[in-house]
Each structure stands twice: as C-alpha cells, then as structure tokens.
Amino acid sequence: MIVLAALEADACAQPILRTAIALADLFDAPAVALHVRENGDGRPDALAAAAGIELRETAGDAIEQIVAAAHGPDVTALVLGARGMHGGPQPAGHTALDVITRLVKPVAVVPPRARAEHIARILVPLEGTAESSLALEETVALAHRHELEILVLHVHSPTTVPAFSDHEPHAALAWEQEFLARYIAAPHDRVSLRRQLGVPADDVAAVAHEAAADLIVLAWSRHLGPGRARVVSETLARSEVPVLLLPTA
User: Fold this and answer.
1) CA 2, CA 24: separation in Å to the nearest integer?
2) Between residues 161 and 16, which one has the greater pLDDT?
3) Helices (H) and strands (E) in the chain, counts
4) What's the pLDDT at 172?
5) Has residue 87 got a pLDDT over 70?
6) pLDDT, the chain, mean
7) Is the separation of the CB atoms in 192 and 233 below 8 Å?
8) 51-57 long-range CB contacts below 8 Å, 24 or more apart?
9) CA distance 138 to 157
10) Greater model confidence, 65 or 94
C-alpha cells in the first residue's frame, strides 16, 4: 500500500511532498510521487529524488490520470494541491475539486503555504452524527496509535448549545464526556474537546490556526453542489494546513 502524491510543477509541489511523507508515517505506507505530463511540461524529478521517494510518470489529462492512478488497489490515500498560487482565502482549484468528488478513499488537499513536515496534532471537527463518526474512526485510531494529539471541535448553533453550558460545569463536563464516548471510538487519553458557538464553515480553519494543528481531518459526503459541503469548501479555501477528507460513503 502507498500514499500517492500528485505533483505538478508549481508552488505547491514541495508542500505536497512534505504532506505525503508525513501522512505515509500515519498510514504506515510509503509515499510515492505521481507526475502527469501535459503538453511536454517539465518533470519534478529533482524534488522526488531529494525527498527520497519513487516518481511515477504518465501523460494525458491531469484529472483523469490522477483519478485513475488513485483508484489503484495499492493506493491508501491521495495527496494533491489545493491550487498553484499563494495568496489569501481563495477557492480550491478545479483539479482538486474534481478529483475529491470522484474518489471514495482518503484525499489530503494541501494549500501552497503548508509546512506539514511532521504531524503531531490533528483537528477533527465533529457535527455529532454516527455517519461522520464512522468515516473518521479508522484514521482517528491510527492517530491515537501514533500518539498524536487529537483535538475534537464541535461548533454549536444558538439552537443546539446545551442550556446548562455556562451555569453548570459538572453537567457540561458530563455532556462532553458522553459526546466523546459516542463519537470517538479510540481511547481518550490524548483526545480533547473544544466546544464553541458559531458557524462551522467559518470556524474550522481559524481553530486549526489557533490550536497550531498540523492537519484537519474532515468527514464529508463527496457532494459540492449548491447548499452542500459548505464546511469543506470554506475550510479548503481558508486553511493554512492540509485537509484530509474522508468520504462517508
């Protein structure tokens, strides 16, 4: 099994490689680079060689070739760039958005300025559903086995925040313990829960930055149509760290 890093000759190539190598440790699988040559463009041989990983090359349409390679039975997870340009908040590029909707396996989307050379702390936003919890279960278990810190984020809306939260500390603590017990199957010795009032789509990237998380892990439905997956779309646009997307189906 391998972690496949889709490389292009742009500003995101090195962050993609760094993230793939870091995720390879998490998934207990070697990292392998893939480069799709289009119109005779250059090859990132030197980057792969410097990183000490195998480079596979192919030619054709980038999206089709990346998806085909990632569908391979030996691929545990795919790593690709969010976009080629540096800058402030901006939507993920069309390549990333097309690829992530077509794969039913973990895909890490890497912003150009990501510095994920080592993953020590992950942020796991949880909406509180069995479906999302199941999608996250295996990766959270791997994170625990590798002794990573796991910060679970639950964002309340004004209608879902428990009435006792600000007045009954013991009741709030009991609610938090039950929430973790229900939705995090891994042991809780390195798991902490952060609750806040807000809008998940606006808060995930900000909390990752504040908490110095190295990776955001999100369960998602693989649908990006109107009114769908706003948390994923906004997190990809705003995050300064890689986002690992885990399909719910």
Assistant:
1) 7
2) 16
3) 8, 10
4) 81
5) no
6) 88
7) no
8) 51/17, 51/21, 53/5, 53/17, 53/20, 53/21, 54/30, 55/7, 56/32
9) 28
10) 65
pTM of the model: 0.91
Q: What number of residues does the chain have?
A: 249
The pLDDT assigned to 149 comes to: 97
Place of tokens 């590029």: 93
Domains of the chain (ranges, CATH numbers): 2-110 (3.40.50.620), 121-247 (3.40.50.620)
Q: Within 13 Å, how many C-alpha atoms sit on residue 244's CB side?
A: 30
- Residue 141, amino acid: A
User: Three-state SS across 9-23?
Assistant: CCCCHHHHHHHHHHH
Which residues pair with residue 247 across a beta bridge? 220
Query: How does DSSP assign 154-222, residue by residue?
Result: EEEPTTTS-TTTTT-HHHHHHHHHHHHHHH--S-STTEEEEEEES-HHHHHHHHHHHTT-SEEEEEE-S
Q: Please name the amino acid found at residue 215.
A: L
Task: Please tell me whether residue 149 adopts helix, strand or coil conformation.
Answer: strand
**Which tokens sit at 22?**
């870091």
Confidence of residue 44 (pLDDT cuts 50, 70, 90): confident
Give the tokens for residue 150: 């796991």
